[in-house]
Amino acid sequence: MNEKQLHALVAEFAKNLKTPEDLNQFSRMLKKITVEAALNGELTDHLGYEKHQPRNGKNARNGYTSKTVICDEGEIEIETPRDRDGTFEPQLIKKNQTRITGMDEQIIALYAKGRVIGLWIAENEGRSSGRMC
Asked: Which InterPro entries does this one have (predicted)?
């Protein structure tokens, strides 16, 4: 997606934003979609194959677990992917982590620059805290 396409998409969404709560809800939805895509990218990296592709070994995707996390805009419900062996340890939002802060700037930059989720994950590997800034 290039910058022109992104501006057109944002303009279309902006037509429906009438109140501060609408903007807050849109921001939470964007954060949810981005976090879930990043978590799925982490699982793909962990398993070594893309979703709907033949698996490389015994371990496989095994659905999702719902999790409520608190962010700058309030609570969001995310779906964390699971693997059959239970060896997947998400790094973006770790197991038992209930709070994420400081992600707004990165999510906006991610969409604004049209960057690939995998590249963003690669840049943020090894971060030990839940704070992403």
From this structure: Transposase_mutator (IPR001207)
